[in-house]
Amino acid sequence: MAGEVRPPDAAGSGPGRRPEGGPGLTAAPPGARQTDRMAARELRFLKRPALTLRMAAGGLAEGLLHAARSLLQHPVMLFALLPALGVFLVLKHLGRADGVEAWLRFGSWWVGLGVLSSIGLGTGMHSGLLFLWPHVFQVVAAAERCGHIAFDVHRDVWWASNAIHCEPQEGRPAPIFSDFFLKTYLACFLWGCGTALGEIPPYFMSYHAQLAGKQNRELDAMLGHKGRGLVAQVMHDMLNWMLAVVRNHGFVAVVLLSAWPNAAFDLCGMACGMFLMPFGTFLGGLVIGKGVMKTGWQNAVFISIFRKKSRESLMHLMASTFPFRVAAVSQELSVGEVLAEKMQAQVTKFQDRVAQLASAANDPAPGSPFFESLARAASSPGELSTFVRAHLPSPWNLFLLCMIGFFFVSMLEQIAQQYYTKTRLKKE
């Protein structure tokens, strides 16, 4: 096809030739490579659990050792992180590190969720839908219930329960859109920076493969295989277009391609590595595109949806969209009206809980009520039964648990498959 982008060949071979392998490797016959890929795809916990777990453990250990060596040798570690760690330990010894720890928990929580959202070449966890936008909704709902937005949101992390507190304060103006945006944007920005960090592995893999003169099999397969049907042809043309944009526009292309929910951005990262784009240019474009622009407009959209006026319009639309009645649901209300009532009941329940909580300064230490009730549960069967009923996970928490479990299983299987292929190539 005219205008197709072919990856540059650092080893000097033509587009029709296959490289002879990197240093210390002998190129395997095409049939053997195809057999290896087929065998790697069989590494799944449901099919070969023992071998999959062993390969995943080997890949994790190798990756952690490589990351630790790189981190310890990096100038940022020597001249920034180690001095910062020293200052933190001094503050901890003096008993003045509570504020620093709160910010570290908040930052690591949202950055970590962002990394989990984008890492894994398509197997990332949808942490935005599962955590970030529910956080934005909680902030909006709490502010509407309390009449102001002067409350702390940094405790909405990890195990913290009832993390958003506020008490009604007379004389404060009602929050407006910009108040909601500024209150929630830091979490959105940190999460967006985490998604930028999650795009680094495909870039580095492609970058180092290009330096070593190795073939990028994933991109080559997609560029060379047009597939059948309209959808396959469109995807093939879009990939070539995206590679041409990255090659011709560099930093601007990274910013614009990452500023919207681009499911194929892994390929953009691989293309940036293939064209040997400097790491600072790549990461800077991602931070601007994902951390500033994309999360900014997404935050504005979700705040508009979550505010009371638009929320009521959404419930009205739901009630009018599903006007039919089902006997098993309700005799008086339609399905849409029942759904709208359930939604409003959940919103009211959350807002009432926020309003009834004491201020953060008077709260018990995180987790202490749980351990106190656990100690009581051990005293008698009746207390144990009460404890179990009180701590049964909600359907939403069960859904979250299943999603997180599926994500980690997929990641381990992918690591196992990559490590298996790598060890087979080393033996040849």
Task: Put the structure in a nutshell.
The chain is an all-alpha fold and 428 residues long. Among the domains are: 63-96, no CATH class; 367-428, no CATH class.
Query: How many strand units?
Result: 0
Detail the poorly predicted runs: 10-28, 358-368
Helix/strand/pairing class, anyone? Answer: mainly alpha
Largest sheet: number of strands, sense, barrel closure? none
User: Any idea what the radius of gyration is?
Assistant: 26 Å
Determine the number of helices (DSSP H or I, runs of at least 4 residues).
17
Overall average residue pLDDT: 74
Which geometry do the CA atoms define?
A: globular
Order of helices and strands: HHHHHHHHHHHHHHHHH
Helical fraction equals 55-70%
Strand content: under 5%
Q: What is the first-to-last residue Cα distance?
A: 35 Å
